[in-house]
UniProtKB/TrEMBL annotation:
It is a multi-pass membrane protein. The chain crosses the membrane at residues 116-136, 156-176, 276-295, 358-381, 441-464, 484-503. One of its GO terms (biological process) is oligopeptide transport. Pfam families: PTR2. This is Peptide transporter 1. The keyword NADP does not apply. Belongs to the major facilitator superfamily. Proton-dependent oligopeptide transporter (POT/PTR) (TC 2.A.17) family. It comes from Protea cynaroides. GO terms for molecular function: transmembrane transporter activity. The keyword Zinc does not apply. One of its GO terms (cellular component) is membrane. Keywords: Membrane, Transmembrane, Transmembrane helix.
Length: 551
């Protein structure tokens, strides 16, 4: 009986173990969890069941954002009675804030709430901002009043209500943008900034310590104690060796047999900081393109307001609506890129996706030069017509607004190559525990691009309005020279492209150790990021070798 009990007990333990293993096999095993924090199931989590909700939320948010953004400069000039330069500055500042707040949202998602609850919380803030903005434009007492001549006069309170709604929307955007494009609900792994600060402090405290020639002597424990949850270790790289000092062991690093994380860091921690630093030059080159892109919501719209807005004899379109051609350009170039350009380029490059992500970004930067050149040429021709026929006081020059289509079209084409390539590049090259942060970092190029545009407008206005001159961007653009402003941006884009080529050739890719469990990667949905739990069985090293490479 004893032997039977032992045998029965052993069989029961084996059944429990087998059941546990079977349950684990049903999990995604890549750190993904459901909204309650439980391991996500392969069959019931993600795939195309989740995509409609993710894409639907993103579609509604983007529809609201672009509906406001493209019309905002006209609202500020016509309803709040602001000048062209002031309105452009306010639009750029608001748009820049919309793309700087994702740093806050990404930090909260990675460190505390996780992506799901971050999106849910900040979406509520976004909706509240939309309600307040709508009230400021429609409710009596909150909306500006206009006199019999059509000139509106906004009070301080009305302006405050409008901008309060706008900046609540900017705050809400911060929790949505870094979490939605590459959405997977993962447990927060603690503050990534703390890990980076520990490396900085440790390396500075050991600035006199000599880094050993044999890098295998650097501190890297065999267990995962110094690795963030759901992350892989990183191999040592030979760049930025000053930070290797943080991984050099000394007698002072151990207090009562415990490792002081502010004096001794693992090689993986050091490489995480190096990965972020290596991304910064690539990141910086995206700022100028974002400055170019921001003109669609400001000067492109103001330029269009001075042209013939008729579409047929009895129908006029708002100049802001021409941004639809940017969207049409994106929708047109996405399938052309995937179905024609990539297969053609693959024949010559041997690269799985035709181009490396850095090459794709470089092509986009090149195309953006021509978008500014096209805008400058159009404005030059428009001003020639103004001077030839003395149209200075004419509100709408008899030149069709549809001549703006090429500049919108070229911006959309550049956007296809740059924005998604940059987003995927930052996501893949970021440390595993900092991907939301680095996705947000990519978005900050748009923020800084808007702020640079504000700075340029203010500098140009200050310089060109001396001695009573109208300047490049006056309230009446018929007296101005925004063609010069477009040419300035084109020249900046040429210089920026040269810098991008140099830093791309210098870039060193991160070296992760091992693979995610089950070698599960995310299916690449062309130009729409990754949908959760679309399994694509391929080893990380094979993906790394085929997808990346020098510029």
């Amino acid at each position: 009986m004893a032997e039977e009990d032992i045998y029965t007990g052993t069989m029961a333990e084996e059944d429990i173990y087998a059941g546990t293993m079977a349950e684990e096999d049903n999990n995604t095993k890549d750190g993904t969890v459901d909204y309650r924090g439980r391991p996500a199931k392969k069959k019931t989590t993600g795939t195309w069941r989740a995509c409609p909700y993710i894409l639907g939320n993103e579609c509604c948010e983007r529809l609201a954002y672009y509906g406001m953004g493209t019309n905002l400069v006209n609202y500020l000039t016509k309803r709040l009675n602001q000048g062209n330069a002031t309105a452009s500055t306010n639009v750029n500042n608001w748009s820049g804030t919309c793309y700087i707040t994702p740093l806050l949202g990404a930090f909260i998602a990675d460190a505390y709430l996780g992506r799901f609850w971050t999106i849910a919380t900040f979406s509520s803030i976004y909706v509240f901002g939309l309600v307040l903005l709508t009230m400021s434009a429609s409710v009596h007492g909150l909306k500006p009043t206009c006199d019999s001549s059509g000139v509106c006069h906004a009070t301080m309170g009305q302006s405050v209500a409008c901008f309060a709604g706008l900046y609540l929307i900017a705050l809400g955007t911060g929790g949505i943008k870094p979490c939605t494009p590459l959405f997977r609900n993962q447990k927060p792994a603690g503050s990534p900034l703390t890990r980076l600060c520990q490396v900085l402090v440790a390396s500075l405290m050991k600035f006199r310590v000599v880094v050993p020639t044999d890098k295998s002597l650097l501190y890297e424990p065999a267990d995962d104690k110094f690795v963030a949850k759901g992350s892989r270790k990183l191999d040592h790289t030979d760049m930025l060796i000053f930070f290797d000092k943080a991984a050099v062991e000394t007698e002072e690093d151990h207090i009562k047999d415990l490792v002081n994380p502010w004096r001794l860091c693992s090689v993986t921690q050091v490489e995480e900081l190096k990965s972020i630093i290596r991304l910064l030059p690539i990141w910086a080159t995206g700022i100028v393109f974002s400055t170019v892109y921001s003109q669609m919501n400001t000067l492109f719209v103001l330029q269009g307001d001075t042209m013939d807005l008729h579409m047929g004899p009895h129908f006029q379109i708002p100049s802001a609506s021409l941004s639809i051609f940017d969207t049409i350009s994106v929708l047109m170039w996405v399938p052309i890129y995937d179905q024609i350009i990539v297969p053609f380029a693959r024949k010559f490059s041997g690269h799985k996706f035709g181009f490396t992500q850095l090459q794709r970004m470089g092509i986009g930067l090149f195309i953006s030069i021509f978008s500014m050149a096209a805008a400058a040429v159009l404005e030059l021709l428009r001003l020639r017509m103004v001077r030839r026929h003395n149209y200075y006081e004419l509100s709408h020059v008899p030149m069709s607004v549809f001549w703006q289509i090429p500049q919108y079209f070229l911006v959309g084409c550049a956007e296809v190559f740059i924005n998604i390539g940059q987003l995927e590049f930052f996501y893949d090259q970021a440390p595993d525990s900092m991907r939301s942060m680095c996705t947000a970092l990519a978005l900050t190029t748009t923020a800084l691009g808007n702020f640079v545009s504000t700075l340029l407008v203010n500098i140009v206005t200050s310089i060109t309005t001396k001695n009573g001159k109208a300047g490049w961007i006056p309230d009446n653009l018929n007296y101005g020279h925004i063609d010069y402003f477009y040419l300035l941006l084109a020249i900046m884009s040429v210089v920026n492209l040269g810098i991008f080529i140099l830093v791309s050739r210098w870039y060193t890719y991160k070296k992760p150790v091992g693979e995610f469990p089950s070698n599960t990667l995310w299916r690449r949905i062309p130009f729409s990021g990754y949908c959760a739990n679309q399994e694509y069985q391929v080893s990380y090293q094979d993906k790394h070798n085929k997808q990346y490479g020098k510029f």
